[in-house]
Amino acid sequence: MKNTFFLLLFLLLASCASDTGLEMRPLEFSGEICDTCPVVRVSIPEAVNGHQLGRNVNTAIREEILELLDYDEERDAQDIPGAIAAFQQGFQQMQREFPEELTGWEASVKAFKSYEDSNVLSIQMDTYIFTGGAHGYPATRYLNFSKKTGEELDAEELFAEPGAFSEFAEAAFRKQYDIAPEAPINSTGFMFDENGFSLPQNIGLTTEGLILHYNPYEAASYADGALILRFPLSGVSSYMAWSD
């Protein structure tokens, strides 16, 4: 009887553990390989659970990749292999029109689950794209999802009071980048719109805590690279939308 009790308890705990985590498997995609083909590599997680959260995660990841790779509306790719083909076809078209000027194109996407608890799931996407010019463009994107509803969250929906958190974040930004409290936010060379602090487009969670990620050109020049603020979750828990 005692052994039966412990077996049932183990199965119950295992069931609870499986319910809290979204099961995902790795997927790899690449473009056609040839001497004149642009290099395209895509590495993403795919949710294998059939419920709403899994479907929304897969859809959001796919849409991000389609937007990155298939910028020609006439091609209208419907899936990741189609988007990769569209990117390569775009290069081939440019190669025909400007054979002497064109340099090789390149695109890469690496996405992974960066954080998950009973309230929220975050997917981090690190991307790089080069379609000519002086340099390529690296960027990081966070996709956040409510574990309660399964729906994707806008960055501001992570916070109970976005305005209050923005004030907190501005004070931290000024401290990290040595900007006096009374000085204009752009006084040391940043490029916030209308000289007013704003939260970045990409906010997410990782094992390091809450991440505020400004991609190049969002608040500074390309040469400055990404601007990143990190906050331990214990230090910002009162600002989060699910705080008690």
Helix content: 25-40%
- SS-based structural class? alpha+beta
Spell out the helices and strands N to C.
Answer: HEEHHEEEEHEEEH
Strand order of the largest sheet: 1-2-3-4-5-6
Radius of gyration using CA atoms only:
22 Å
Question: Can you walk me through this structure?
Answer:
There is one protein chain. By secondary structure, this protein is of the alpha+beta class. The chain has helices at 2-20, 52-69, 80-97, 162-176, 233-236, and strands at residues 24-30, 39-47, 106-116, 120-130, 137-146, 152-153, 202-206, 209-214, 227-231. A hairpin with a 5-residue loop joins strand 5 and strand 6 (152-153). Helix 2 runs parallel beside helix 3. The model is unreliable at 1-19 (pLDDT under 50).
Q: Which key phrases capture this entry?
A:
244 residues; alpha+beta; three-stranded antiparallel β-sheet; flat
Describe how the helices and strands are arranged.
Elements lengths: L1 H19 L3 E7 L8 E9 L4 H18 L10 H18 L8 E11 L3 E11 L6 E10 L5 E2 L8 H15 L25 E5 L2 E6 L12 E5 L1 H4 L8
Parallel strand pairs: 2-3
Antiparallel strand pairs: 1-2, 3-4, 4-5, 5-6, 7-8, 8-9
Helix pairs in contact: 2-3
Short structural summary:
It contains five helices and nine strands.
